Each structure stands twice: as structure tokens, then as C-alpha cells.
TrEMBL record:
PANTHER family per the UniProt record, alphabetical: FERREDOXIN-RELATED, RIESKE DOMAIN-CONTAINING PROTEIN
Residue span(s) of domain Rieske: 5-101
Keyword annotations of the record: 2Fe-2S, Iron, Iron-sulfur, Metal-binding
Name by which UniProt lists this protein: Rieske family ferredoxin
Pfam families associated with the record: Rieske
Cofactor(s) this protein cannot do without: [2Fe-2S] cluster
GO molecular function: 2 iron, 2 sulfur cluster binding; metal ion binding
Classification via PROSITE patterns: RIESKE
UniProt keyword Endoplasmic reticulum present: no
InterPro entries, A to Z: MocE_2FeS (IPR012747), Rieske_2Fe-2S (IPR017941), Rieske_2Fe-2S_sf (IPR036922)
Family per similarity comment: Belongs to the bacterial ring-hydroxylating dioxygenase ferredoxin component family.
Length: 103
């Protein structure tokens, strides 16, 4: 059964940036959009299994640091090759200045 798990404080992430969050054997990235909304997606690139947290956030996407594949952080959709497998998105809520992911 899924439960809400604290990932970080909202202030830990700058606007238009991301942070890595590990929980058990899973890795996530939590993104804070320029509109101050929070999103969570799988944190490993579906192409070469690289940690996305070393990449960039730009124009609504997370860019992989290895081959520049991009993923829409709102939908998880792979939007630029070489990645062609979408990433899973995770529900996010902010409560009391803390960011939670439903895992």
C-alpha cells in the first residue's frame, strides 16, 4: 500500500531545479517548476540507467547528463532521443513546508 514519504523541505529546491531522493532501492528526482509547483519522477534515465539529478531542468523537462535525452517532468514522457521509454511519475504534496511523495 502506498504512503506519503517525506522527500525534502520545499526550500531545499530552487525554482526550476531538482533534487535527488532515495527511498529503499528506488531513486527519484523532485522538481520545483518556475511556477513553484513540485513534481516527482523516477530518478534514473530509462536509456542508460544514469542518475538524472546530475542533469539539467529546463523548459518543463529534465535532461539526462549522459546523452541529453529529455523527460517531461509533469508526465514522465520521454521527449528526446535516445530515450524512448517514459518514466513513472509519482504524486506529490507539500504540507507544512515539506515535500512528500506517495510511494
Amino acid at each position: 500500500m502506498a504512503s506519503w514519504t517525506r522527500a525534502c523541505a520545499a526550500t531545499d529546491i530552487e525554482l526550476d531545479d531538482m533534487i535527488r531522493f532515495d527511498h529503499g532501492s528506488q531513486t527519484f528526482v523532485v522538481v520545483r517548476s518556475p511556477e513553484d509547483e513540485f513534481f516527482a519522477i523516477d530518478g534514473i534515465c530509462s536509456h542508460e540507467h544514469v542518475h538524472l539529478c546530475s542533469g539539467l531542468v529546463m523548459d518543463g523537462a529534465v535532461e539526462c547528463p549522459k546523452h541529453s535525452a529529455t523527460f517531461d517532468y509533469r508526465t514522465g514522457e520521454a521527449t528526446r532521443a535516445p530515450a524512448c521509454i517514459n518514466l513513472k511519475i509519482w504524486p506529490v504534496k507539500v504540507d507544512g513546508g515539506q515535500v512528500y511523495i506517495e510511494i
